[in-house]
Write a structure and sequence with these properties.
With 283 residues, the chain is an alpha+beta fold. The protein is 55% helix and 7% strand. The chain contains ten helices and four strands.
């Protein structure tokens, strides 16, 4: 139990898995039992973790709902042209596929589950989906379709990797997406592909994400609400990544506009944020 005691009838500290599944969901219970556990070690059962895993299931469900509300394609195929953030997410997915497959082969289920949790919650939901909103809500039909295809492709592979841990949720979502085959449980397992490794895109996106995080942190420190937007001037020796992601930076860093240059004059009284790759200034 949560105090480290063996579950027994005499202590009355056992749990009824059917009750837990009824309250939090069978998938949340399964994922709770898999994560944070390593072979040969005793495991403490915390009901609070089931609640956290239910929140994780809700996160996946909401991300899927968002995609389906914006979906106009009938085939889940990658586009020919890929933007910087598209290459970044595909490269990250490629790495997760390789690592999770290796972990599963070595029966390191807890490690595999944790990597999936981090990728889905942080990389896919909190970063990539937010970055694609500018294209999905824009006026360019080609850009909209491009974002939809990558979102759908990555989500489909995520569902395949997550299926052994959360079979009910993943099957339900997969059936609602454009797919081939009768069921997710018999769909082919994703495979690592050398052609989907984009280390340069990962390095470029790291610069952008560091900047967005730094600006958000500074705004939080100064108690500036998201509704109050300011113009952001970015000075960098290599401006390519920041230029390519201007819309995403403006959206995620709550800016009214973004200017990118190799040299930006700094006005007196302006607020400056410095990262390893750039210096950003707000008036």
């Amino acid at each position: 139990d949560d105090k480290g005691r063996k579950m027994s009838k005499s202590l009355g500290n056992g749990i009824d898995p059917l009750e837990i599944a009824e309250k939090y969901g069978a998938d949340a219970l399964r994922f709770n039992l898999v994560t944070g556990n390593s072979p040969g070690n005793d495991m403490r059962f915390y009901t609070e973790r089931c609640e956290a895993m239910r929140n994780f299931a809700n996160k996946i469900w909401n991300a899927s709902r968002f995609l389906m509300m914006n979906l106009t394609i009938d085939k889940c195929e990658l586009p020919e042209k890929l933007e910087l953030e598209d290459k970044w997410i595909l490269s990250k997915l490629n790495t997760v596929i390789r690592e999770v497959t290796e972990n599963m082969d070595h029966y390191e289920l807890g490690v595999a589950a944790q990597k999936l949790y981090d990728f889905i919650w942080d990389t896919y939901c909190d970063w990539y989906i937010e970055m694609t909103k500018a294209r999905l809500q824009g006026d360019n039909p080609a850009a909209k379709e491009q974002a939809q295809r990558v979102l759908c492709y990555v989500l489909t592979d995520i569902l395949k990797l997550l299926h052994p841990f959360m079979p009910f949720l993943t099957e339900e979502i997969w059936q609602s997406l454009p797919h081939q085959g009768k069921a997710l449980i018999v769909a082919p397992w994703p495979e690592y592909e050398e052609g989907r490794a984009f280390p340069q895109a990962e390095a470029e996106m790291k610069k952008v994400m560091e900047l967005i995080t730094a600006v958000r942190t500074r705004r939080s420190e100064m108690n500036v609400p998201p509704s109050k937007k300011a113009h952001l001037a970015i000075e960098a020796a290599d401006t390519a990544a920041f230029e390519a992601e201007k819309e995403a930076i403006a959206r995620l860093a709550y800016c009214s506009g973004v200017e990118v240059a190799q040299s930006v004059p700094q006005a007196e009284g302006s607020v400056t944020v410095v990262t390893a790759a750039c210096r950003a200034t707000c008036p």
